[in-house]
């Protein structure tokens, strides 16, 4: 009887570990004025940033350096909701306007190399917003 109980508990534990094996992380950092939230799960990597309007062009220039064509975001008045190609490969979805940015990356539709590039992009946005 004791063996059966131990075996049952072991199988139940294994099943729970298997069902919960998907990884998901989310972190939000803020300096009181700017906020950057980065979410990373099995399917998607997302950066959501809100920042002072005077930082808009700094963020836009940084994003433009990483995407092709490099003129996706031209002025603080731009309202963008589009797909963009990462320089070197990979596709991201951008939503941007003055003081706000959402970048979404589909892991299933892109390479591991592109995933690492987009993670660097998210870290760069955090640096520009000064919210490390």
Task: Give a written overview of the molecule.
It is a single chain. The protein is α+β, with helices and mostly antiparallel strands and 132 residues long. It is 35% helix and 32% strand. The protein has one domain: 2-Layer Sandwich (Gyrase A, domain 2). The protein has a 7-stranded antiparallel sheet, with helices on one face. Strand 2 (35-40) and strand 3 (44-50) form a beta hairpin. The protein is globular. 20% of the residues are buried.
CATH architecture: 2-Layer Sandwich
Cα distance spanning the termini: 55 Å
- The CATH topology corresponds to Gyrase A, domain 2
The helical percent reads 25-40%
Q: What would the principal axes of the Cα set say about the shape?
A: globular
Mean pLDDT: 84
Question: Unreliable runs, pLDDT <50, ≥5 residues?
Answer: none
Instruction: Please give the domain count.
Output: 1
CATH class designation: Alpha Beta
Q: Quick one: biggest sheet?
A: 7 strands, antiparallel
The whole-angstrom Rg is 20 Å
Q: Tally the helices.
A: 3
Q: Proportion of β residues?
A: 25-35%
Name the helix and strand elements from N-terminus to C-terminus, one letter apiece.
HEEEHEEEEH
Order of strands, widest sheet: 1-2-3-7-6-5-4
The tally of beta strands, per DSSP, is 7
